[in-house]
Amino acid sequence: MCPRRAVFGDRTRDSARQIVYADSQSALFHVLNGHIDQPIGRSRSCLGGELEEIGMQRVLAGSEQLRRLFAALTEQTFQVEYGVADPPLVDYLSDMLTRFVRIEAVFRIRDMEGRRLEEVAEMLLEAEQTEDRPRREIHRHIGDFTLFWTGVYPEALKQMRSWARKDALVDYREQGKRSYLIASTFDEAPYHDEAAILRRLSDEFDLCSAGLAQVRREWERRPESGWTPDLN
């Protein structure tokens, strides 16, 4: 049982300003709300029992609407504001945000006994014990995992890398770059196209992290200004 429980906010607003999850176990940590001081609902999900309560917002729309919203935000941020004319890279980041709406996608790597791995150090150890495709998928996930936390929710890093945890000495940025690079070396079919994207993510990790932070700021800013996403 988790000693601390993550908290979902179920504060109701105009439904057009909220994103919808399929069930109460789904959440894109903090990026959809950002207000950790206004928790209302509760869930038994936790990050190894170590994280403090996290503000989350309940979802009220379908996955296709969610995908469109993230696509619009990432395109605006990276192509317009950052001048990154790289549609495959931007699409990858948008898809990553959509995938990571679900907690089981954020913590999808498991060991041989089926135990969920919640720390990068554990994932690295698991990668060393596997070969070929599983190793590639683990390193790809480590890249996504570290990019997500450093870009979208950097406030969590202090606790995720506290001295009580195995990740205390793990540099998420450097490890993310390294894992993306390792995953990119698997460039045969069917990974050829994605291998090029993973290499760019390795090279431009810091830029992508900053861009994702801006995506979060855009999400938090627009509802305050009365912006309503066109999801049609």
Write the layout of secondary structure elements.
Elements: H1 63-81, H2 87-99, H3 103-106, H4 120-128, H5 132-151, H6 157-160, H7 172-184, H8 192-203, H9 205-224
Structure characterization notes:
The chain has helices at residues 63-81, 87-99, 103-106, 120-128, 132-151, 157-160, 172-184, 192-203, 205-224. With 232 residues, the chain is mainly α. The chain has one domain (62-224).
**Distinct helical segment count:** 9
In one word, what is the shape?
globular
What number of structural domains do the residues give?
A: 1
Taking the sheet with the most strands, its summary is: none
Portion in beta strands: under 5%
Order of helices and strands: HHHHHHHHH
Query: How many beta-strand runs?
Result: 0
Mean pLDDT: 76
Percent of residues in helices? 40-55%
Q: Which stretches are poorly predicted, pLDDT < 50 over at least 5 residues?
A: 1-61, 224-232
* Rg measurement, Å: 17 Å
Structural class by sheet pairing and helices: mainly alpha
Intertermini distance? 41 Å
